[in-house]
Design goal:
heterodimer, A: mainly alpha, 2 domains, 15 helices, about 0% strand, B: alpha+beta, 5-stranded mixed sheet, globular
Chain lengths: ~325, ~500
Amino acid sequence: MLSRSASNLYWMGRYLERADFLCRLIDATVRLASLPASHGGAAPAWESAIQSAAVAEAFHERNLPVDEANVGHFLTLDPENLSSIRRCLEAARNNGRAVRTSLTLETWEAVNDAWHEIQRFGSGMPDSSTLVRLVDSIKNSLLMFDGAAHRTQLREATYWFLRLGTTVERADNTARLLDVKYHLLLPRSEPVGGSLDYFQWTTLLRTVSALTAYRWVYRESVKPWLVADLLIFNRAMPRSLIACLEDAVWLLDQLAATRGRRGPANRIAATSLRALAGSDIDRLFQSGLHEFLERFIIENNRLGDAIAEQYLF
Amino acid sequence: MCVLQGENVTSRAFDETYGFGPYPGGAGAGPLFGADGQGPAVRPPYAEVERWLKSAPPDLLETRRRQAELFFRRIGITFAVYGDPDASERLIPFDIIPRVLAGSEWARMEEGLKQRVQALNMFLADVYGPRDCIRAGIVPEELILLNPQYCLPQVGRRPAKDVWVQIAGIDMVRTGPDEFFVLEDNARTPSGVSYMLENREVMLRLVPELIHAVSMAGGLRPVETYPEKLLETLTSVAPNNCNGEPCLALLTPGIHNSAYYEHSFLADKLGVELVEGSDLFVHGDILYMRTTEGPKRVDVLYRRVDDDFLDPLIFRADSVLGVPGLVNAVHAGNLTITNALGTGIADDKAIYSYMPDIIRFFTGRDPILHNVPTWRCREPEALSYVLDNLAELVVKETDGSGGYGMLVGPHATEAQRQEFAARLRANPQHYIAQPTLALSTCPTLTASGVAPRHVDLRPFVLTGANGSQIVPGGLTRVALKEGSLVVNSSQGGGTKDTWVVDIPGDEG
C-alpha cells in the first residue's frame, strides 16, 4: 500500500474518533451544566470540556465567556477551530477522498454523509436544542461509518490502518478526559463521596458511554477509583486504556504479519501493554494518577510517531 | 471549446435530427413527433428509442432522470469548477435518451480514427526524429521548431515500442449522414472516459426495457471492456529495462483537480495505485513509489499531469505535482510514461489544419474523417479571404484555449469585428479561421419534453505495441440550452450514453 494512503486512512480514523469524542463530551457537559449551581455550575463544566478537548488555550485566546453558547459553537461548527467537529469531519472526508478506491462504497458514503450532515447545520452559533440535535445526529452518522467499515471493508491493511488511527486517538482522548476530570472537577472543599462527586464522575462515564457498563461491572455506587479502574484496566471496556493498547498491539501484529517484519511501533505498543497489565489501580493511586496519565499521553504520542515512521507516512 | 454556428439547423436533414423527422417549427422547436405520433419514419438505429419514447409516460422519463442524478451523486462522480467555491463539486447533467450510431456508421468512424491516430504517432516519431515531413514541405519548419509545444528534451528520443499517444480522445461532430468532422485531437491527457463507462452503468440500471428491446432487435455493443483494453495497452508499452510483469501506477495532480474522480475511478478499475508526485521518487534513474512495505519500482506511469508539471528539473521548477528526475528515468529506458512527453505538438491548433496532408504523407491514403476547413491567416491569400468574410467565420488564436481570444463572427457586432480585424492584420500568423458548422442534434429530455439539442462525440483510441483499438462508444456531450452549440461541461453542457447498435440489414 502507498504510504500516503496508509497515512490518509490512519488520519481518517483519528479525525472521526475525535469527532465522536467531542460529540459525547458535549452531550455529557450539557447535562452536567444543567445541574443547579450548588453542583458545580455551568462555567466550570464548560471549562473542563475545553480542557478535555485540549483546546483551552485556543478558546481563551478569544476572550469569550465560557458558556454553552460559546464553547458549544467552538467545539462543533466553528470553522476557525481546527479541532471543531466540522473541521474533523472535513479532514476525515478529505483523507477519505484521497483513498476513495480503498474504501467500500458504503464506507465512503458514510463519511461523505457525515460531512454533508454537519454542513446542514451551517457555521453560526447553535442554540441549545440545535446543539443537542447536532450532536445526536453526528453521533449516528459516525455509528453508521463504524458499521459500514466493520461490515464491508476487507480485513487487510486498509482496515487496520483505519482502526489503528481510531485506537491511538481513543487512548489519547480517554487519558486526557481522566486527567482533566481528576484535577478540575473535584473541589477540595467537597468531601469525597458527596453529591457533587457523583455527578462529576457520572458525567465522565457518560462521556465514554460507560455509565451502564460501570453498573454491570461493579454493581455498586459510583466511586472515583472504580471509575478510574474501569477506564484504565478493564479489558472489556472498549474505551479503556488497556483495551486501546490491546487493539493497537493486535492491529500492528496484523500489519507486521503481511509485511513479514516488526518495528519500533510494535515494540512500544507491546511494552506499554505489558506495563499496564502488570499494574493495578491501587498501585497507580499510590504513585500518582496524574503522573501516570501524563506519562501515558506522552507514550501514546510516541506510538503515533513510531507508526508514522515505520510505515513512512 | 467548440462554438459552431447552428443556422439552417432545421432546414437541413441532419442524420441524427432526421431520426425523428424534420422539426415543424424554427430552430430547436419540439416536439419531435406530432400529437398523432405520425411523421417520417425514423432511421433504423433510432427505431427502438422512438418506440420507447412514445410508449413511456412523460413522468417516467423525469423519474428516471432524477434517479440517474441520485446515482451520480451517491457514487460521487462530480467535477470541480475552478474559482467557484459553492460549486466546487458539481454534477454534470446526464440525459437519459441515448445517442445511437449504427454499426456501419461506427465502422467507418473507427477506421478513420485508427488512421488518424496512426498518423499522429508517425508524425510525432518524425518531428522528434528525422523530420522528413518538414523536409518534404508538409508542415512549415517554424511551426514545429518554434512551437511552445515542441518538447526539446524529447528530440532524438523514442518511447518504448515507438508508441507516443497511447490514449487519444478525438472530438468529432457530425453535419450529415456521412459527414463526420474532427474538431480537435486530444493527444495529451484526454479525460471523460469515466463518463462513458458510468453513463452506460446508469442506463443498464435505469432503462433495462429499452436495452432489452435493442438487444432483441440486434444488439448493443458493450463498452465495459475499456479498462481491460487500457491495461493491455499500458502493459504492452513497458520499458525495455522492465523484466517480468510491469508495475503500473496512475499519476494524478490530487484531489483538487477537476478530473480527480476519473483518476481514482480508472485506478480502481485498472487495479493500480493512484499516486501523487509526493508518493514517488527517482533513485538511480529508476522511479519508485513509497509504500508501507518500502520503495516499490514503477515501470509504466499513466500520467494525468501535463508535461510542464512532470519534472521540476526539466520543466517548471516550481511544480510540486511532478517528480524530480522523472524524465531521466524515461530516457534511461527504465520507465514509460503515457502519453509520451511532447505529444502536445500533435494536437496543437496550428498543426490541426495540416492534418489532412500529414495523414496522406504518413499513411499514403486519403483521410477518412474530415478536417474542418481552416484558413491559416499566416498565408496572405487566406488572410484576405478571412478579412473579407469575418461575419461568417470563427477566428481562433493558434495558441489559445478555453475559448479565449476568439471571434465568433456571426455573433459579434460590427465594432467587434473591426477591432478584431485590426489585430488580425497586425499579427496574422497567430490566427486561424474556420467556417461555422451546423452540428447535428439528438433528441434530449428537456423541461418542456423531448427536444433536439446539439451534440458532439469524443471516442477514445487506445494504441499499444500491437496497434489501436477503440471500444464502440465514447462520450457524447450535449448542449442543453436550446439552440446552443457549446457542449462544455463548465458551460451548461451535459452528457449522454453513446450506443453503437447492430441492426438487421445494416452493413456494419
